[in-house]
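Before we proceed, please read the two lines closing this message. Let me know whether the structure tokens fit the sequence:

…
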Amino acid sequence: MKKPSLILCLGAVAATGAAQPPSPSATTRPKPPKLEWHGAFSSVAKPRSLVAADAAAWKRLWIKDIGTSAPASVDFKKYVAAAVFLGQKPTGGYDVLFSTVPAAGKRGTVIGYREKKPSHGAFVIESLTQPYAIRLYPKPRGKVSIRKLP
């Protein structure tokens, strides 16, 4: 009696496809690039922003301003990187919120951002911080600038 139940059980596993490998198309799809990075500590003590439009500027941004190697290679034929440094802050809880769609105009493309401040009474790290954010955008035509929004 035990043999039929074992065969039935193996047949059920085979019928569900649990023992089959994933299809080739599921494993070969290119992974989309990570588009945004945030951090509380950088080496930038005064507020500033910059645009990295090539691999050399991308590497320099990470090594000089963040203090680590670049986390990924970027196809700068397709993307441009916007970096905003908020400068030194008295506590944690600060962040950069980028606009999702840059504004294109006659003088080029403007990438907007807002500074997020900790809410009153929020629990934050009681340490000096230097918050930053870096975001990749599809490469526009012409000049790219970064502007703080009200």
Summary: The CA atoms of residues 74 and 126 lie 35 Å apart. The chain has one domain: 36-148. Residues 5-17 have pLDDT under 50 and may be disordered.
